[in-house]
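In this section we walk through a basic example: taking a raw amino acid sequence and producing a predicted 3D structure, encoded as discrete structure tokens. The instruction is simple. Fold the sequence below.
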Amino acid sequence: MRPVCKKNQAVSGGAMNARSWPGGAGVEAWAAVPAAFRAGAPLPPPWDEVFGPLRAGSTDDLVVVGQLGQSLDGRIATNSGHSKYINCEAGLDHLHRLRALMDAVVIGVGTALADDPQLTVRRVAGPNPARVILDPHGRLRPNARVLSADGTRRLVVTTPGAACALADGVEVVRLAADNGHIAPAAVLAALAARGLRRILIEGGARTVSGFMSAGCLDRLHMMVAPIILGTGRAGLTLAPIERVDHALRPPTRSYPLGEDVLFDCDLSAARAPIGRAKIST
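The resulting token sequence is shown next.
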């Protein structure tokens, strides 16, 4: 099922509305945003409100953004794994805009194997981010589309003992693991050491949940589509709590994008310090 994007009414908590974002003159002005964003120049409206906070982190030199698209009942896919497309066209455009502003986009190897994504910005103007795949056991296929030699930097994060048969030009980052799990903070520190400062954790849900649980996200962009799957694969999975008043309640703003609603959650108060990037871009 693929919902059709329609105009929506403004959602409380966001100053933007469906006429200014994603439709209207704001979209046409997007082409100037990636360069202005990196140069620290003012962003044309309406982009500064949602993307301005991604320029610099408040904890250290890094900005780490998690992104998930899900149904109203918190599902990212059916039980069979089918997920194309839960979110509508405007929601997909937002994801590609996020990529265009980030230095690197990170996915787990499970997502790479299941979806074979490209992780490019083909839907919008802007540069492709470096593509990073977390692959502790060397499962990634050498012909995966994320490894395509298209001039974009490609990195595979794995463990010292894993066998990785990868093409020339793919950077292999070997980090210690605990029970086959590479700590999110170690991943971010390794990327920072390689000059990657703004990092998008795109998926899958287990990877985003892991970075959030470790206190390694500055913000979470949750795109919610007005559909109900009933059953299926869950979005965020965090440690259980006993009481509702123990729940995380981050400062949140919401914006309509076609039929979807974007929830921009500020997690910076819980972000663990990582360090500084070698090169600032």
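Looking at the output, two observations stand out. The longest strand covers residues 63-71. The chain has seven helices and eleven strands. In the next section we compare this with other chains.
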